[in-house]
Design goal:
InterPro entries: PRC_barrel-like_sf, PRC_RimM, RimM, RimM_N, RimM_N_sf, Transl_B-barrel_sf
Structural class: mainly beta
Helix content: under 10%
Pfam families: PRC_RimM, RimM
Number of domains: 2
Strand order of the largest sheet: 1-2-5-4-3-6
Oligomer: single chain
Distance between the termini: 27 Å
Number of strands: 12
Number of helices: 3
CATH architecture of the largest domain: Beta Barrel
Organism: Microcella alkaliphila
Largest sheet: 6 strands, antiparallel, barrel
CATH superfamily of the largest domain: RimM
CATH topology of the largest domain: Elongation Factor Tu (Ef-tu), domain 3
Order of helices and strands: EEHEEEHEHEEEEEE
CATH class of the largest domain: Mainly Beta
Strand content: 35-45%
Subcellular location: Cytoplasm
Family: Belongs to the RimM family.
Length: about 210
Amino acid sequence: MIVGPAKADPPGSPATRLRVGRLTKAHGLKGALKLELFTDDPERRFTPGASFSLQVPTTSPWHGKNLTLTELRWYNGQPVGFFEGVADRTAAESLAKAILWIEQPTDEQPEDDAWYDFQLVGLRVLRDGDDVGEVIRVEHFPAQDLLVVRTAERDVLVPFVSAIVPSVDIEAGTLVVTPPDGLFDDLDGPAPGGAGDTAARTPTTPPSEQ
């Protein structure tokens, strides 16, 4: 199952970065923020002193800055973070929807059910056993990630959630989709090109803004 898959630059790049969470909204009056986690190991990623680079619009006062965690608490099963320099609700509200990235240690083992962008780009997309296209890139948005699938007719945006993408097989070079009605219904036949297409395998890097 796909459980908040982490995304990163390919190994060997100057920095391997993982997307581990999103700040959703302010919590209380003392600068706390509710978190949506994109990691199966929050105890490792969200320890006091952990530093995160921020994916925010260029117009945000937080653009180009890092955020340091002071404490992670749980309220009714919901993670809530406290951060250096975020002392009140107004400051917390200015960080709503920011995506948190970290640099992954080079000797660290990857998390279960987590994929890098470069692993997904180039995969053949199967629906009911039929090849309907190829993943050409991954788009990261605050609400969810989208796979851009190139078909014979057009590019299709597929939400990268377990209900729609229940299976990813990196070794086989395929992923399975169970799309809702209408997502692929107008397509006829397989998409052109193969899994070895060089352009389709060009790695993507995290966007600097939304």
